[in-house]
Every structure is written in C-alpha cells, then in structure tokens.
Amino acid sequence: MSMFRKVLVANRGEIAVRIVRGLHELRIPALAVYSDADRDALHVRMAEEAAYIGAAPSTESYLRIDRIIEAAHRHGADAVHPGYGFLSENAEFAAACEEEGLVFIGPSAQSIKRLGSKTAARQLAKAAGVPVVPGTEDATREAEEARRIAAELGYPVLLKAAAGGGGKGMRRVDSEDELESAIRDASSEAERAFGSGEVYIEKLIVDPRHIEIQLIGDRHGNLVHLGERECSIQRRHQKVIEECPSPLSATRPELRSAMGEAAVAVAREAGYFNAGTAEFIVDRDGKFYFLEMNTRLQVEHGVTELVTGVDLLHLQVLVAAGGTLPLRQTEIQWRGAAIECRVCAEDPEAGFLPTGGRVAQLSEPGGPGVRVDSGLYAGFEVPFEYDPMLSKMMVWAGDRATAIARCRRALEEYAITGVKTNLGFLRHIMDDPEFIAGRLHTGFIPGFLERRPREAPCPELEDMAALIAAAHVRARNTNGNGAGAQRQGSVSRWLANGRAGVLR
Amino acid sequence: MSMFRKVLVANRGEIAVRIVRGLHELRIPALAVYSDADRDALHVRMAEEAAYIGAAPSTESYLRIDRIIEAAHRHGADAVHPGYGFLSENAEFAAACEEEGLVFIGPSAQSIKRLGSKTAARQLAKAAGVPVVPGTEDATREAEEARRIAAELGYPVLLKAAAGGGGKGMRRVDSEDELESAIRDASSEAERAFGSGEVYIEKLIVDPRHIEIQLIGDRHGNLVHLGERECSIQRRHQKVIEECPSPLSATRPELRSAMGEAAVAVAREAGYFNAGTAEFIVDRDGKFYFLEMNTRLQVEHGVTELVTGVDLLHLQVLVAAGGTLPLRQTEIQWRGAAIECRVCAEDPEAGFLPTGGRVAQLSEPGGPGVRVDSGLYAGFEVPFEYDPMLSKMMVWAGDRATAIARCRRALEEYAITGVKTNLGFLRHIMDDPEFIAGRLHTGFIPGFLERRPREAPCPELEDMAALIAAAHVRARNTNGNGAGAQRQGSVSRWLANGRAGVLR
Amino acid sequence: MNWRVVVGDREIPIDLAKLPDMREVEPGVYSVLQDGRSFLFRVAPVNGAVLVSVAGRDYKVVASDPRAGGRHGRHTLGEGRQNIGAPMPGKVIRVLVAEGDAVQHGQGLAVVEAMKMQNEVRAPRDGRVVAVKAKAGDAVTAGAVLLTIE
Amino acid sequence: MNWRVVVGDREIPIDLAKLPDMREVEPGVYSVLQDGRSFLFRVAPVNGAVLVSVAGRDYKVVASDPRAGGRHGRHTLGEGRQNIGAPMPGKVIRVLVAEGDAVQHGQGLAVVEAMKMQNEVRAPRDGRVVAVKAKAGDAVTAGAVLLTIE
C-alpha cells in the first residue's frame, strides 16, 4: 500500500495542508518545506518532517529548485508533490526531479513543456480536432494584415500579448477605427510587462462562461474526465467562486460529455498523465472553445471530489507511483451540487486590495455538507509575500438551491477577526438573484457590485456594538492589560464582581 | 419555502447545533432553550432567539414540558424539534405540543405510544410478519413454566426485565441448573432498579451484530428506508462507533433490502411518519431479529446522510409541515462508506468513567471527507449533569478501507486538552485488525481491550515533554501569570529575548 | 459615569451600569441575550479603536474611559499636517516624491507591493510633502506612515 | 540552572539553556523542529502539574523552578494519611462510612454521580477513616477530597 517512502510537499498554505492530509490517509510520511515567513504555519506542524528552504520572498524559497531537491535528498524523500502555483507547472523542476531520482507527482516534464505556452496548447487542440477561439496563431505586427484578420473574425476582437497573462497587454477592439492605436498600446504595454511586444488577435467572446474539465490519467494510457467546473465568477482575473456541476448542465446536459471528450482528446495528444484541467470558454449559444491546459491539481479540485466522490489527491499519488487508474469513464457518477468560496485577505470595498494582519479570533464552519481546507489558526499572521487566499470553504448538497442555502449558512458561521476578508462579500453573492438563477459569466462581479443592495443601517445593532465595545475596553483596562491582550472571561468576571456590586 | 415561522429546538449540545444549522439552511429562525449550565453554549449563540428554561438538572429544564411549551408560545414559535434523548420519545410531550398548536417534528403521539414499550413493538412486528428474537411475551414467574420455555428455546437463554433498559435485570443462563437462581437474582435486581420485578425469557443470540435501519415517512403514507447502520461497537450498552454501510453488506448484500422491507412493514403497521430507526440484532448466520423502534432522529443519523446524500433533518421538517416525501425507494443510492466516532468526556482506561473539566485548547479536524458535529469551543466547561458526548466526528470515503484511514488521520488532528476524552481509544480501534476486517459484534470492546497492544514507552518523547513543560512553566512564571493564565507567544517572546541573551 | 463612545461618525451615550445579559464566552467574543433574542459580538483591536462584528456587520468603535481623560479622543485630521499610511502590509517599491514637493489631489506618492500586486498610494488632497519616512525596499505594516503632507 | 522535572515516576535533568527550535504557535501549543522532524506539543495545566500531549501520548509533568525553592515537590502519598478524591466532577450521592470506621481494601466509601452514572469510590488499601469531608448532595470537582484514611 505504501507507494512512496516519504513525499516532499513543495508548497505552503491550505494546499500544503491538504496534501499532507492526503498523504497521511495513504500512510505516507510528509516532508514540509518552509520559508522564514512560514515557520509557524499549519503545514509545518502537521507534517512528520520539515525543512527550511530560505527567506520569505518565493524567489528565495518556494521557487528554489536547488534547495527543494536538496531538502528531499537530505530527508530521504522519494517523491515531490508541487501543489498549485510556485513550481507546479515548471517543466524544468519536473525534469530536475526526474533526473535526481525523485518522482514528480504530476505529468511528465515533456507534457508540461508541450502544454506550457498557450499557443502550443492551441495547436495541440487543433490537431486533436478540438475547437479553439478563432484567431491568429502568430504574432501580428503589420496593420494591414491585422485589419484583414479582424474583418475575417468579425468585431469585436481581442488583442492578447503572446507572452502574457493576468490581463496585461489585453485590449478589446469594437471597430476597425480603433484597431491600429489599440495594437500600438497593447504592444507597448506587453513590451513593458513581459519584454516582448508580440500581440495576437482573437475573436472576442462576449460575456462568456469560464468552464473547465477535470482530467486524470495514468502512465499506461488510461485517461478519464471527471466532468466540468463552473469558474466564471472572477475578480482581477482570478476565480473566487467555483461550482460543480455548472448550472449550464441543467439546460445543456450534453455539454459535459462533449467537453469531457474534447479535453481527453487534447490530453491524449500531449501524452498526458496525472491530474490536469482543460480550460474552456463557453459562449451564449453553448459553443465551447478550448483555452489552455493547467498541468497540475487545481485550487478548486475539491468541488469535483465532493460531487464525484473521487479523491484526486489519492489518485495523483497512485498514478505517480505507476499504478493503474482504478476507475473507468462509465463508472464516474455525479451526485448533487458543490460550491467553493475562496476566502481571501482582501477588501472587496477597495478594489479587492490585499489586506493583512494577525488573526485575532477564528471560528470555522462545520456540520453537514461543509468542507474547509484551511491554513488558518488563531494568531496566524498573514504573510504579505504570498497569495492572499487563506482558505477554501466548500459545501455540498443534494441540489444547487440547497447548496447555496448551505453555503450562506456556513459563511455566516465563518468568523475571522483581526484581518479584513471577503467573507461578507461572498455571503452577499449567495443572496444575488442572478447568482441564484445561475446566470453566470466572467463579467459577473462588476455587474454584481453595481446591482447589489446597500445594507440598511441598523441603529439598534450600532447601539449595542457601542455598549459591548465600552464594556470590553473597560474590562481590559481594569484587568491591567493593554488593548492587545485578551484573557478569557474578563468581562464575565468583571460582570460577576464589579457589576454585581453596582446592581445589588 | 418557509415551512415554519420559527422552530423551538428542545435540546442542547451537538444535536441542538445540528438542528439550528439545518433550520438556517431552510431559512427558518431557531429558538434555543437553555438551562443554567448552558448559558454559554454554542446552540444558544447560534440561534436567533434563546429562552431560559430552568436549573441545570434536566428534570428542572430540558425535561420540563410546561416550560418548553411556554417558551414556544412566548417567542411565537410554531413547531418544536425534540432532537434525541430528553423528551424526544415522550408521547405526552408530543401530545402536549399538538394540543397547544405546535407542530411536533417527529411521529404522532399515538405512534410513539404504540412503539414505546419493547413488548408492544414486538407484538406489532409479529403482526407485520417480521422476525423477533424467540421468547416469551409475558412475564414469567413460575419456575416450572420458565424451565419449559427455556428448554423449548434452547440454551443459552437471556433473562430481561420487562420494564428495563441499560443492562439492569439482565442475566445470561447457560443451563437448566442455573435457571431458578438466575430468575431470582434478575427479578430482585429489576425490582430495585425499576420498581417491577417482572422478567421475561429470550433466546440468547451469541455475539450478535447490532444493525439498524433508517426510515422516513410523510403524513400521506409514503415511507422509505435509507439502508442500514452498523452499531455493534458499544461500551456500557451505548454505541461509540457507527458505520454505514454495515461491513456485513459486503458479504450479504441481500440483507439491506430484506431488513429495510421488514422495518418499513413495522412502521406501516404503527401508522408511522417522520424519521425513525428500527433496531435489529443479526446472528452469525445472518438471520435478523427486530428489537425495537426508536421514534426520533438518531445520534448516528449523519453516516446515513453521508452515504445516501439525503439530509434527514431537512426531510423531517418538510414532512412535519405536511409536505410529501420527495424521494422514492428506488431513487435512494448508497455511495462509499462512512464512519462516526462519538467523542466523549470519559476515561477508557477507567471503565469509561465520565470525566469533566474545562477545554483548554481545541483543534477540530477538517479537510476532505470529514464532518464534525460539535458543541465544543475553547473554554467550554463540560457540565456534569448531562451525557458525556462532546461531539461526533464523521468521515466519508469511497470505500471502507479508505474511510478507516481517513478516520485515523482525522482523529490524529483532533486535539482537546483540559478534559480527558476517548480520542486516543478511538484512534487505537482504527488500527485493530478485527475492526479493519469488519468482524464486529456487541462484545467487540471487551475483546479489543484485551488484545490491543501496549504502547511502547518512548524515552525521547518523554525527554522532550519534560523540556517543553519546564520552558512553559518558566515562561508563565516569568510573565507573572499563574499556571492557568495562557497568553500567546509567551515562550516565543521569552525565547526571542531571554534565550537570545544566553546564547549570544 | 458615562463613556464617550463613537461608532463611525455617531457619538452614542453609554451607561455601563445598564448592561444586558452578556457573557464573554471566548476571549473577545460576547454572547448577548436581549428581549429573548441572541446576538454574538466579536471585538478585535484595530489601530487605537476596536472593530465590533455582529450579524455580518462591522463597526469601528472608539470607546473612551471617562476616568482615563479621553486618551482615545476623536482624531483630528485633514486640516493641517496629514500622515499618509501604507494601505496594506507589504514592501515599498518606489517613493515618487521628495521632501518639499508640491503635490496635487490624486497624485501618486509611493508604490507598495504585497502578494504580487503593486498599489499606488495617492495624495488625498493638494499640499506639500513635509516629511518622507519610507524608502524603497522597506517592509511596512498596514497604516505605517510613509510620508507627511501639509 | 537545572530544573527538577518529573515525568510520571522518572526525574529528568533539564538544561533550559539548550532548547531546540521551538515556537509557541498558539497559547500552550509548541511546534518543535528537531533533527528535521516536526513535533507538536500541547501543554495544559492539571492539578499543580502540566499535562503534555504529543503524538497521541499524554505525559503528566511536574516542573519545579530551582529559584522557586521546589514549590511543586514530589508528592508523598501512600504511607501514612491518604486523601481519597472524587474520581470525576459530579454530585455525592451517599457517603458509606463514618469517621473512625475501619475499612478494607476495595470497600465502598462513597458514591458519586455524574452524567446519570453512579460510581463507587473504593478504599485503595486497608485502614481507618480519619476524616469525612463530603456529605450527600455536595457538588464536587474531580480530585476534590471526599475523605481521608490512614
């Protein structure tokens, strides 16, 4: 049963915790790695072993291939799980692991390389007969050529930086008049951001859904898909709420197998094994277009686990060890509905700007149908060097309406003080009629921010808050503690003594 | 959608929390009730409203029908959920609710009465053609008659107090020689315990499994079963680990529908609606015998929810409001395996004696496949007036072996200090070969206590524990706090200051 | 003895001799029962005030002990000198102005980076830079003074 | 300055100048990294000592500060007088003996009830009751002295 002697977890935060848990369930000891910012982190405490790999900036720790491989050797690990982000889609890292006799729990370095650039992935998809967004494959510099292509595609079109990501170097062009200056702007922005001003042209899909397909395959050519995830709700080009199944499946049940087969075709073309995700956009008519392949375990893999009952992490380890995939496509079943909320240290009222601070109080939700994958604890100091995601709260229920009600309930239970988070924002989305109706697209959040009702002031709560605050401050002062010190029962004790004296 | 205006939760602890959560998911406000011992309890904080109902002993609070009904009226509640224990199977309470215009979320008072005594339930089962343990229906006093009956049944036989429960007045009799004195002993013990010395004779089923069937029905005659739960692992005649499905289902898949149909037949005979559980014992040959019907939501209902995907609490509320059961027998599907551990304030090394105290630190498990229904928080003082169960930790996985591995992982994460619990005991069971093989019967725990390996001493951990303890005590003393006061980071601060000074 | 308590912009008179049924059930967590209703308040310190969270709402409250002589008095800001703080914990990437510079409302003063995102700190009004307290490369906490304008 | 630390029956010499990489990550919770291995210790007070939990094991530890003059010295029990404590928090239902009674090893001394279960407190050895400190109806905490034998 023990597939590996020891596995190094080359990540931090909630995903490192999730990987350690999965390894423990497989009875495999875990080796955590940590930077200066993470000495006190949960993943370090939960793993059997821990190795220090450098200073807080990820370039000096979680991105240091040499130190991670050195730690693996020093501790006698024989495999590495990269999680997501950091080195997870770095072909050089995967290759280095293989060369050093460490099993990389993910696809081959070659697959990562083949799927690494969007352009290469797009060519693979075309070779596999999978639809892609119409557009140019090569960078366009000549204005004349650009005009011809754009006219062929039909406006609106989208300009994209060839080397890009994160929305930089992107421009929407609605008519030929705007084209030339837009190319100039996009190109110079791309030049500044990525050192390359190459720009290509795509048909713009208006208000698309972002839907992706989860895949897993083994080294023996077996490959299955686990259905779709709806990931349209995004801010700053990052997902914030994901679902399985997509609400679109209710009206277009044929999409799952069509997209699933397309995703498997692309993966097969790339000789893919382990877990991966094919990202698509879907237009208003239900036509889908392949975008790219993410060659790692996705942040939002949990909603697929909840609905299919398949543990993706267990399977990743199994197939990395050379095992045969224990399930066939026909055995995979989808039950009920799952929703994930990414809980982030950010301020939705201030453009989703990252916040920080120390967690003063923490209370995470529980009970039926709730899964929390979290790196939090009371006293946790949010490091400003990394992604602001603190935890993932997932719910499952028999249908989507109940899942939304449960998600709302669980968000109400979730309490984090000391750090500003997006919990309230997430809760308000659960009340939004558009969200409840499942009318989702990548422009959902800007629309939601405009239409969401203002919260009515509540003078009664304000008055009570004033009273509680005064009692709290008085009790803290009376006990001779500073504002920061918190000792249990101080007000209760004070009430039992001081107040009793006043009232009797 | 809102089936009730407000629901009074006539219970405390984890089940009150679970009911409040379910109500919130249905968008129904919850009214908690509390005794003097529970002012600070979680269910009081989580409910929209709370009513004080008396002193700590349950006879003065949670068993006071008058106060509970008065609280419901005062707060404008229109329904009552009784949970389990306390008044949940009290026909008088159900009738009082009905008379006072409150919907009792459970079966009718009449059903409760008809199923309330084991003897009456046994007669109902016989009328429905369901097998019961062979034995007398009437109390046996004449030695001659007893000898004849016992000979007919075949030894060993079991003597049971007619009014009894909890093992009092019970005697195993292996041969005719022992019969007369055993009747005398059992009868006088029953007389002392229950005020009635009536004893009846049953065929003794040696090392049976305790397996039960979950039912739910509506007021319109629809009635389905949700399969079985294995509840053989008991101490002090109380369940401590439950599973769905029973490991027996692997070798005898026909049992589920056979027992399910039997349970439905008994319930139909009693005109039953709402959630209920038919308890059976199953002998070594796989023959099953009906024992009794529990006319309430069971402690262990969660494992059935995890495997069937059905939310029993939601359905209870729906059918109580007159709704039609939204599922047919053929639509119910079982997926994977779930295990529940009852986490109790008790000392397994001292005969499972209840313990107590204040929870100093609390860390509950999370991540994939873990559900915790808990009434705990850091600082919780275990009241000695009530049941010692603190929380229920449930896990789900695709198969039983993985569920056991996950259960072990989650138990390792579960930390409660300040109160002695059975967490370590539960964890050791997960390593037991008999448990892993699924060879369960009601005598499991005595056998386990004998065979379980002694833990080898670990001097290295002992040395480290000594060091940590000394550093902890020194830091607390240096900070001028007593042993009880705990402030974050004291040792860390002390290390940063004092120790740094020593070392440099 | 009445406390001076300011919630947002509103001053609320408080009489601490009249408290509801309230219990500090966990450190800084208060269960309040009032008129049969149950409320859970969480109190956490925030820059010389406390943030009170209840029912999904947050209130920033400045509570001044009458005996302490108004230590937490109302802030006086906006007229004369004004400190410009970091909007989040992070690293100062660039300071865009120098002491003595005249600045206009909305003008960029410094760039702070956190979690891979750069954010420009802008002038809240017209004025002149009288002090620069941060330099490129500094790690700063939220609210740390970067510079002062007047 | 060596501390006197007793774990169970074993006295362990401790040098607090030589500590491993340890961090109090939460109150009373220590993350220790030693030789590349990670340990999590939890420390909670228990009757004049501390209970240290690690890897599913519990150690009762009495740690005496050398400067404090051995306040937490080793218990001396078992020879002369012996206090009989309540085995759990609960209510005293009956006291079965009176002052001056001779008692035998295993004899019932009192009955304590908690959570609906009655438990008999038995004599740990032969002796004589010299003091009865509890009466029926008393609420007692775990370890509270019920009576003394010698």
**Global structural class of chain C:** mainly beta
What structural category arises from helix and sheet content of chain A?
A: alpha+beta
Structure summary, number of beta strands of chain C: 15
Beta-strand percent range of chain C: over 45%
Backbone shape of chain A: globular
Task: Using the CA coordinates, give the radius of gyration of chain A.
Answer: 25 Å
Q: What number of domains of chain C? A: 2
Q: Widest sheet of chain C: strand order?
A: 2-1-7-6-5-4-3
The amount of helix of chain C comes to under 10%
What about the largest sheet of chain C? 7 strands, antiparallel
Biggest β-sheet description of chain A:
8 strands, antiparallel
First-last Cα distance of chain C? 38 Å
N-to-C CA distance of chain A: 69 Å
In terms of per-residue confidence, which ranges of chain C show pLDDT below 50 for 5 or more consecutive residues? Answer: 69-79
Sequence of secondary-structure elements of chain C:
EEEEEEEEEEEEEEE
Describe the oligomeric state of these chains in a short phrase. Answer: heterotetramer
Strand order of the largest sheet of chain A: 13-12-9-10-11-14-21-19
